[in-house]
Amino acid sequence: MNIAIMGFGVVGSGVAELMTKNHAGITEKSMQPSMEIKYILDLRDFPDSPFCDKIIHDFSTILEDDSIAVVVETMGGLHPAYEFVSDLLQAGKSVVTSNKELVAAKGYELLTLAQEKNVNFLFEASVGGGIPIIRPITQCLAANEIDEIAGILNGTTNFILTKMITENMEMGEALAMAQHLGYAEKDPTADVDGIDACRKICILASLCFGKHIYPDQVRTEGIRDVQLRDVSYAANGGYGMKLLGVARRVEGNKLCIFVAPCLVQGHSQLASVDDVFNAILVRGDAIGDVVFYGRGAGKLPTASAVVADVIDCAKHIAKRKLLDWGAPEDGFVIDCAEVPYPFFVRGVCDCEKTAETVRGALAKQELHIENAPEGEIAFLTGEISENALRAALAEIPGFSTGSMMRVTAY
Amino acid sequence: MNIAIMGFGVVGSGVAELMTKNHAGITEKSMQPSMEIKYILDLRDFPDSPFCDKIIHDFSTILEDDSIAVVVETMGGLHPAYEFVSDLLQAGKSVVTSNKELVAAKGYELLTLAQEKNVNFLFEASVGGGIPIIRPITQCLAANEIDEIAGILNGTTNFILTKMITENMEMGEALAMAQHLGYAEKDPTADVDGIDACRKICILASLCFGKHIYPDQVRTEGIRDVQLRDVSYAANGGYGMKLLGVARRVEGNKLCIFVAPCLVQGHSQLASVDDVFNAILVRGDAIGDVVFYGRGAGKLPTASAVVADVIDCAKHIAKRKLLDWGAPEDGFVIDCAEVPYPFFVRGVCDCEKTAETVRGALAKQELHIENAPEGEIAFLTGEISENALRAALAEIPGFSTGSMMRVTAY
Question: Each residue of A386-405: pLDDT tens digit?
């Protein structure tokens, strides 16, 4: 059996390396007599790579070669990845991808096409790097109604938050360090503003709840506005702070979904996820909470997930894997600002009387730090929707809100 | 499609309940037109159960009914579970079990029989309750060479250790509390002495390393001898203490496997696993460390894993799942007392000169607690085998060893 790789960047070269290193075991587990990389598609040449003789520049070589049954797409970006993958599925080839942008935007469409053509379209590596999560959700937790899924889905922002918390670094300083270490891109927008986490929670939610959720349906907030003292207030209350992607089934079988910095319980499995690690919590009606933890990015961890999918394609070459990812549905995603949560609020009061009003009206638990600025108070509320909270705060004219974050039940 | 359940205890009744509660979703995911429980085999009658009309007492009813394609075995114990399961596989029926004793003792044999008959023998629920672990290891991590697997595999002992650590309870008191809460049996031997954890690490190791490992090949130590002050010494050094099952590939492609209380790094994902929760760490060459966390026991979590396997059997009714679990191999498991580890040692010195000798010869880091008994010292060693350590300690006549535990690298 022959495979092709499209995109010889970090992940693509990791796939080639891993398939070479663990070739015997991978071939055996694939139940194929042989398993070889025949082509690697890239715009560039790689004269010094051990795979240089496999590099090609013309996509049609792969498309038209009948000996290629499985194609790995590790190019990233929506175009031309989308066109290439569509053509390959159309031609009856299975596709494995690590491209979260592609899956979040076109998952339903490409899965439907794969179904029509009786081939596989697999994307374990698109969420959580090497952490097994897609397959556990779709298979191992199949007996459950999933009520909620919440994940630390972006290693870069988790690294930044970890540095802020453990080393008292300001956000800008921690970002510069992440860039220096190669964890963050020069343009860190996709990470820092939550766009990357948004794509991943869309993929997870689409799988858990069976309807395609698009990134533009998700209220997305990054970590740019997180202040070091919010982290301190949270820590003093026994909470950690994490950038989470959350998808939660709410009354009437609707979905509340968002990406935002949240307070998590200090003793929880999510609170202890540090640095570039990722973790995903799934709450099912039978199983309760399960958490999957590991490296959410990186060459070989991500390649590990890609190659596991390649093995699965090889084993199921004549049999399609069923993924319960249906069409989008109008009205399924509701406005998360209407869903009650306990909130963390920090703000400034113009006088002690205002502070008393705020305390009386909203504060269930007040939080403290040393050397708080004059007039600042921070507190946790009871369950209240964001809209109701904003309205209540607006009615206290002497209070100006500094930050506001949801407090999760994990 | 019809299924039968053998054993209507905690797990068996959970399976019936879950299949009823989430019937529509389970049937859809099974890709079967219908999915019904036809028989429940038990010695007892259950006149008040909603499933009372399905209770039967004669195994041959199930064996001889051609409409039964999948049988759930939740009886526990080796006999007659082994005979029943053998007969069912022989008759061409797939079997799903939660019975770790059966799988640890007969896994290779029953998998071989299942292969001959082209049916499935699945056992996700036998390790880690509802935590997805068997399928992730065999499928999602298939591209990896697995180097090590370590798990908190027994909820009862983890509950006891948690109480000792967080509430300064003595072992006996914590055990009594676990019994009172229904977490521990009246006879707690299987839990407290590590026998349950031993069966589970055998199953995991057999899958990860491809050769059947039997419980009697595993050096097994429980938590009976753990002293509260060992926990305190460890905590002061930044370590947690957990009863771990560990299987680790060592030089020459041999296996070091044991069950014992170990010191784990205080910031690790294993250290924060409290109460009756389980967690399993898998270290692969490509993926690095991944950790799976959740409820390791209980009616519905375990039923969740059983039903996921039933769904898998239903989907693959004409196709066997490949599990890479080979025959046992002489000499594969080596004596773990010969494998170097850093150790925690606590003991009593007859005089300060002996203490100086111990420090000079073995202590890499000394640990302290308040109000340590006269002459007691505790320390961490460098990497040394247990045999070498015992020999070295024996050469210091004024020192008597109180406890000795491995320190893990996670």
Answer: 999 999 999 999 999 999 99
Q: Contact B397/B349 with Cβ under 8 angstroms?
A: no
Beta bridge partners of B292: A292, B280
Q: What pTM does this model have? A: 0.94
Residue in A closest to B145 by C-alpha: A22
The region, left, alpha or beta by phi > 0 then psi within -120 to 50, assigned to residue A293 is beta
- CA-nearest of A269, A66, A318, A207 to B275 is A269
Distance CA B40, CA B5 (A): 5
Residue B7 to residue B81: CA distance in whole angstroms: 10
Has the ipTM of the complex gone over 0.90? yes
Nearest alpha carbon to residue B326 among B208, B199, B149, B151: B208
Burial class (CB in 10 A: 0-12, 13-18, 19+), A394: exposed
DSSP string, A286-322: TTEEEEEEEE-SSHHHHHHHHHHHHHHHHHTTTSPPP
The 8-class DSSP code of residue B6 comes to E
Angle between helices A23-30 and A299-315 (to 10 degrees): 30
Looking at residue B318, its pLDDT comes to: 64
Tell me the β-bridge partners of A120.
none
Cα–Cα distance, B31 to B236 (Å, whole number) = 54
Contact A324 B29 (CB under 8 A): yes
Span B158-193, pLDDT tens digits: 999 999 988 989 999 999 999 998 888 889 999 999
Contact B277, B301 (CB under 8 A): no
- CB contacts, 8 Å: A305 with chain B: 140, 143, 287
Tokens 């889905």 locate to: A153
Q: How many other CB atoms are found less than 10 A from the CB of residue B174?
A: 22
Longest CA pairwise span in chain B (Å): 79
* B89 vs B119: CA distance, rounded Å: 7
Which amino acid makes up residue A110?
L
Least confident segment among A167-181, B32-46, B241-255, B320-334: B320-334
- Chain B contact probe: residue of A287, A302, A307 with most B CBs at under 10 A: A287
Query: Which residues in chain B are contacts of A298 at CB distance < 8 A?
Result: 288
Per-residue b or e along B331-357, where b marks 16 or more CB atoms closer than 10 Å to that residue's CB: ebbbebeebebbbbbbbbbeeeebbeb
